[in-house]
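JOB MANIFEST
job_type = single_chain_structure
chain_count = 1
residues = 220
[input]
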Amino acid sequence: MPELLRDQIYQTIKHHILRGVFQPGEQLSANQLAKRYKLSSTPVREALNALEQEGFIETIPRVGFFVARITIKDIRDMFEYRIILEGASAEMAARYITDEELNYISSIPSDYIMGNNESYIQYLKNNREFHVSIAKASHNQFLAKAVGLMLDQTQRLVFLGIGSSQHTDEILHAHPHLIYALREKDASAARNIMIEGILASRNAAIEQIIQGSSVAVQAG
C-alpha cells in the first residue's frame, strides 16, 4: 500500500508539472502537498525524490524541492544524448526485430490533438512505449534500459515540443516512416529517420521556449 500511494502521488505531481499547474522554479513543500492530496508527507517526499531522478524536480539543501527549470542548453544536451542512443537502437532493431515485435510496435497509436493537454499526456505514454519497444527490438538489454531511463528524463521536453504546430507533421510522420524502414530491414534508413524525428522534436521544444512558453527561458 505505501508503494501504491507513492506511485499515485508521483504520477499526480508529474502530471501537474507537465500541464503547468506547478511552474518552473516554483517551490513545492512536501507538507503542503501532503495536505493538498490528503496523505502523509512520507509518500510525497518519496515521490519528489523519484521525480528529481527524472529531472522534474531540483533539490536545494536545507531549502527544499523546486520544479526544475529547463534551459536551451538542457534541450540541446538531452536531445543530443537521444540521438546517440536511439540512432543506435533503431539501426540495431532494423537488423534484429522479429515479426511479433514489429506488429506490436505498429499497433501503438502515434497521434495527438493539437491544443489538447490530455491528448498530449496520452501521446507521451504511447511515444515512450514506441521508442522503448524499438530499443528492446535491438535485443541489447543495456541499450534498452538506457533508452527507457533517458526517455523518462526527457518527457517534459517532448511535451513542450508537441505544442508546436510548425513541427506537427514532422513529428507525427516519423513513426510510420520508421516502421516502414524496420519492416524493410533498412538499418541506415531506420537510423536516419529516428534522428530526423528527434531533431524535429528538439527544434519544436526550442521554438516553444523562445516563443515564451511556461518553461523558464535561460540561455545557459
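[summary]
The chain has a mean pLDDT of 87.
The chain has ten helices and three strands.
exit_status = 0
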